[in-house]
Design a protein that fits this description.
The two termini are 67 Å apart. The longest helix has 85 residues. α2 runs antiparallel to α3 and α4 packs parallel to α5. By secondary structure, this protein is of the alpha+beta class. The structure holds adenosine-5'-diphosphate.
Length: 313
């Protein structure tokens, strides 16, 4: 940068030396101010960068901590679900032994007690299965075994499985499907799991004498199946959170679940490259529609991704 004397010399060709001096001084002052501004901007930038670096380090530490606690949660869920299975098997085994020992005509009290033990053990088994799936999906350790599957047969099997429960509530289950639906590429065990979840919800949330219908058909390169009921329905507000993990609506009189079934079903359907949606009207019933590609569009690699946790409860 030119010094004040240099500037004065540069301006010396001005006729009036005093004018040249003050012009040189003004220019020097302007240059100095600009230099000071640039230096201030650089200092500010350095301070902001240092703050950003610090914030980044803190964020990184938080992410690592969250990943660590997530891992611990997954391992804990895994261990607990496995360890609880052993006493559960013992409980079920002895309840069945009791059933055998009481002979063909148990007293009403005996029947009620044995049924209560078996039903509680079955509920617990379902919860443990869901917790294990949940832990696997959260950890991304979940794999599909893709095979050609006859969807219609799977639906009929699932319906037969749920029929005793529906009969107890005098509900009818109607099955209507396209007999020419080609086999789809899917994990049959996982599809049965989805069907069981949708059907058991339909039975659970539909009153005595209600109707349940299952349909399946082909549309373009997709197989579509739906489970409808004439049950209590779901409000628009609840529909928005229905597939979030741990979401459930406490309906008086119905057996409160743990709110994992639909979240797991959605993750399973999406792992097949499909979608699920619900249409419902409170007091009139609900229809869950699942669309699956005839040919799985994703590789059966380990996958994860449960829908986010429901908020606002
Ligand atoms: P769970 O049944 O174990 O609570 P789900 O994830 O399967 O868990 O279902 C979550 C909630 O969605 C249920 O608690 C219920 O409130 C609601 N729901 C699911 N299916 C139906 C249905 N067919 N009719 C009315 N409500 C339903």
């Amino acid at each position: 940068m030119l010094g004040a004397q240099g500037l004065k010399a540069a301006f010396s060709r001005y006729a009036d030396p005093a004018l040249a001096g003050s012009a040189a001084f003004a220019l020097a002052a302007t240059c100095t101010t600009a230099w000071l501004r640039r230096r201030d901007a650089k200092l500010r930038e350095a301070a902001v960068n240092a703050e950003l670096r610090l914030a980044n380090e803190r964020l990184q530490a938080t992410v690592e901590e969250l990943e660590r606690s997530d891992r611990i949660k997954g391992e804990f869920l895994n261990t607990v679900s496995h360890d609880l299975r052993i006493p559960l098997t013992t409980i079920t085994g002895y309840a069945e032994l009791l059933e055998d020992r009481t002979g063909p005509d148990p007293s009403p009290d005996q029947r009620e007690a044995i049924d209560a033990i078996l039903a509680a053990a079955e509920r617990m088994k379902r919860l443990l299965d869901d917790l294990l799936d949940f832990a696997r999906m959260e950890a991304g350790r979940f794999r599909l075994d893709l095979q050609p599957v006859a969807l219609g047969e799977l639906v009929r099997e699932a319906i037969e499985g749920i029929r005793p429960l529906a009969s107890r509530k005098h509900q009818t289950i109607e099955a209507r499907g396209d007999p020419n639906l080609p086999e789809i590429e899917a994990d049959s065990g996982r599809l049965v799991q989805v069907l069981n979840n949708l059907l058991s919800n339909a039975v659970k949330f539909t009153g005595n004498g209600g109707r349940i219908a299952v349909t399946w058909r082909k549309e373009g390169d997709q197989a579509i199946f739906s489970v409808s009921d004439t049950g209590i329905g779901i409000s628009r507000r609840d529909q928005a959170r229905l597939f979030s993990k741990f979401f459930r609506v406490d309906h008086p009189g119905s057996d409160a679940g743990h709110g994992l079934g639909l979240a797991i079903s959605k993750a399973l359907i999406e792992a097949h490259g499909g979608t699920v949606r619900v249409q419902s009207e409170p007091g009139r019933g609900s229809t869950f529609t699942v669309r699956l590609p005839l040919k799985a569009s994703r590789s059966p690699e380990p996958t994860g991704g449960l829908p986010p946790e429901a908020t606002g409860r």
